[in-house]
Amino acid sequence: MSTEKDYLTIRLLKTTIKRLNDNAAHFKRRSGREIASEIIEQYLPLWERLEQEKTQEAEKRQNELLEYMYTRGQASAKDVEKVKADVQSRKSKKR
To answer: What pLDDT score does 3 carry?
Structure first.
């Protein structure tokens, strides 16, 4: 992990900023910014994992639905392939 730092400007609700600053005073930290940085650094890996799991779960549900529709005759193999291609296209646009 690199220790090199850079700047990021984000807009937060005033109440959130007040909470960060109040917590900084309460927990004897230099500033609310220090706390915000720590929160992001510590919880970003968890957030990334949760987002990946949500994506995988959504893909699984979509595939199950497509399979169900196909087996019931509500969708042709061509329809299923079109939807799968659309899903792949959307995935590549997100990245």
So the answer is: 78
How far lies 41's CA from each of 11, 45, 67, 76, in Å? Answer: 18, 8, 40, 47
Which candidate, 60, 78, 10, 64, places its Cα nearest to that of 39?
A: 10
Task: Count the alpha carbons within 13 Å of 95 in the hemisphere toward its beta carbon.
Answer: 7
**Tokens (6 digits) for 75:** 């969708």
**pTM assigned to the model:** 0.58
* Of 48, 66, 55, 49, the residue nearest 90 (C-alpha): 55
Q: What is the mean pLDDT of the chain?
A: 85
Q: First vs last Cα of the chain: how many Å apart?
A: 23
The per-residue pLDDT for range 81-95, each reduced to its tens digit, is 777 777 777 677 665
